[in-house]
Specification:
Distance between the termini: 26 Å
Shape: globular
Helix content: 25-40%
Bound molecules: adenosine-5'-triphosphate, magnesium ion
Largest sheet: 6 strands, mixed
Structural class: alpha/beta
């Protein structure tokens, strides 16, 4: 079945970020990672290294394991074999270490997951105050800066339901940033949004990428991948089938599965 006999286990760009122009240190390292859900082998021998400042877009058909891959990186899912390290440290099992990991590895999902009964400002200050023991006044001034950065500063006193989807998603990004993560994971952050709101969220993500944030982004937004990604990782059936720089991947995919997939999404 497989048309990718070569193991693809290292960054073709050598970890060279578009913005830095030099290789950063390896921040996320997955080695020989396997995971099953029952009989289903959802992650197969995943080898993936993400360097500091690198922006990696993960694409692939539905069910190929993209979300599961992200979820293992901040240990929302456990793995059966293989290792995952963040900045040289193995993922903690539980307790305080796990809370610290979640702070270091920010995650933004398709649905906005804001606390409905807290204001926008409170949503952003909660983590720093509870997990980082930041003083309230300091957490608030930092939160205001971040809300400004994502373009929703004037909404700080409102509740999530009073904001548009695009605004809520930008707040979710600000909330993750408030924890000063080393890496940010985005799992289809724009796919629940009305079309006119997609760009406002992508613009914030491009700004983050340009600012040097290390990012793993599951998305089918080709424009974003072309503009912001250093590397596209293509997954199918739980495997990394191929990876390349965006232009190379989109114009010259190597495997039949990638060709087939691109043919489908580009005609829609
Ligand atoms: N908690 C779970 N229990 C059982 N099976 C699961 C669970 N989560 C995911 N799966 C299965 O694992 C496979 C990979 O799922 P995953 O959500 O990682 O795919 P995906 O690439 O993110 O797909 P999509 O593009 O639809 O979001 C799918 O077949 C899915 O049905
Ligand atoms: Mg998914």
């Amino acid at each position: 079945m497989t048309d990718s006999p070569e193991p693809v286990d290292d960054a073709p760009t050598g970890g060279l970020s578009k913005r830095r122009g030099r290789p950063g240190r390896p921040l996320v390292v997955m080695k020989d990672v396997n995971k099953h859900f029952g009989d289903l082998h959802v992650l197969r021998e995943i080898n993936l290294t993400i360097h500091e400042g690198e922006v990696v877009v993960v694409i692939g058909p539905s069910g190929s394991g993209k979300s599961t891959l992200c979820r293992t990186i901040n240990r929302l899912e456990t793995v059966e074999s293989g290792t995952i390290t963040i900045d040289g440290q193995p993922l903690p099992e539980e307790g305080k270490g796990l809370a610290k990991l979640r702070a270091e590895v920010g995650m933004v999902f398709q649905s906005f997951n804001l606390f409905a009964h807290k204001t926008i400002l409170e949503n952003v200050t909660l983590g720093p105050i509870k997990v980082r023991n930041t003083k309230k006044s300091q957490a608030e001034s930092r939160a205001k800066e971040l809300l400004e950065r994502v373009g929703v500063a004037h909404q700080a006193a409102k509740y999530p339901a009073q904001l548009s989807g695009g605004q809520q998603q930008r707040v979710a990004i600000a909330r993750s940033l408030a924890m000063e993560p080393k890496v940010m994971l985005f799992d289809e952050p724009t796919s629940a949004l009305d079309p006119e709101m997609i760009n406002e969220v992508l613009d914030v993500m491009i700004d983050l990428a340009d600012g040097g944030m290390t990012m793993v982004v599951v998305t089918h937004e080709m424009g974003f991948a072309r503009r912001a990604a250093d590397r596209v990782v293509f997954m199918a059936d739980g495997e990394i089938v191929e990876q390349a720089e965006p232009e190379e991947f989109f114009t010259n995919p190597q495997s039949n599965r990638a060709k087939d997939f691109l043919g489908k999404i580009l005609t829609h």
